[in-house]
Amino acid sequence: MTRKYLHKIKKGGIRINHLKILGSLKFLQNSGINTLSISNCPNLSFDLISDTIKKLEIYECPAQISQIQNLVQLQELQLSHTKLQNISGLKCLTNITVLDLFNNRIQDISVLRFLNCITDLTLSYNLIRNLNPLYNKHTLRHLQLSCNRITDITVLSSLCNLEEIELQYNKIVHVLALANLKHLKQLDISDNHISRQNMLPLQSNPKFNQLTDDKFHTQITRQQLPHQSEILSAHKQRNIYITTLFRTGVLKKQNKIKNKFSKVQALIQTRIQDTVHAQIAMTSQVISSFSLW
After folding, report:
1. Other CB atoms closer than 10 Å to residue 255's CB: what's the count?
2. Checking DSSP bridges between strand 164-166 and strand 142-144, what pairing results, if any?
3. How confident is the model at residue 176 (pLDDT cuts 50, 70, 90)?
């Protein structure tokens, strides 16, 4: 894609996807583009320079932070399914408010110490153990850390403005750090290693008692209803998967999703309580709508 072509693009955004023949993308300065979305371009290499791009989405393309670190006005960045390992180059992108690094190979998040404007951070499906770089990130409102290798969440107690946290599928044992988060509206700590005793700091807090079942998922719920554990476990796993599909804007394996839900739907008729029935029925409606796409 040449500079001459890009100069003809009016102010706004450009979307590039499923182009196996596209080899390189460079020189976006003065192009007037403020949004750029690139997906499913496996052979693409790029070196972007722009003082106008504020939103960049890269999905299932080879990418390195060094290729985008000159986008000085960038505010929203999504780099998902890119096999990314090193994110130290983000240090230069100090205006970022929304950062989505879903499904990569990231272990070290030390660079986040330098990003002081982030409100929404997605790091799910990575290899993260240490959350200390998040200390005192008071701007954070939404934090997604599911499917990592996290054991210690003590640092989260310093994130006083958090409204939503997803921590499912980690190795967390203690949750005391979450007990005094006054602005929390949604919490998912299911599928961790939390005992009944260690759940007491949350259960005794009236703030958490006000959260509805669909906003407060815990391991304890399934322990209290052992005869329904299969239903609840299946429901939670599908719910997480569907949320991921919607968030990334990518829908795959429709038949696989429907097959997984068929078992849940059969069990609903005889074994599920009214509250759980309502949740799965709602999710089933979403899945059935996929067949119309």
Report:
1. 7
2. parallel
3. very high
Q: Which two tokens mark 123?
A: 């790091």
Task: Report how far Cα 49 is from the mean position of its chain's Cα atoms.
Answer: 27
Cβ–Cβ under 8 Å, residues 106 and 82: no
- Full set of structural domains in the chain with CATH: 3-232 (3.80.10.10), 233-293 (no CATH)
Who wins on pLDDT, 39 or 176? Answer: 176
Q: CA triplet 230, 233, 239: central angle to 5 degrees?
A: 135
pLDDT at residue 240 is higher than 70: no
Lowest mean pLDDT among 19-28, 109-118, 154-163, 206-215: 19-28
Q: What is the C-alpha to C-alpha distance for residues 9 and 20, in angstroms, rounded to an integer?
A: 22
Which residues is 188 bridged to in the sheet? 166, 217
Q: Give the distance from CA 176 to its chain's centroid.
A: 23
* CA 232, chain centre distance (Å): 22
Q: What is the DSSP string of the chain?
A: --HHHHTTSPSEEEEEES-TT--EEE--TTS-EEEEEEES-TT-EEE-EESS--EEEEESS---GGGTTEETT--EEEEESS-----GGGGG-TT-SEEE--SS-----GGGGG----SEEE--SS-----GGGTT-TT--EEE--SS-----GGGGG-TT--EEE--SS-----GGGTT-TT--EEE--SS---HHHHHHHHT-HHHHTS-TTTEE-HHHHHH-GGGHHHHHHHHHHHHHHHHHHHHT----HHHHHHHHHHHHHHHHHH--HHHHHHHHHHHHHHHHHTT-
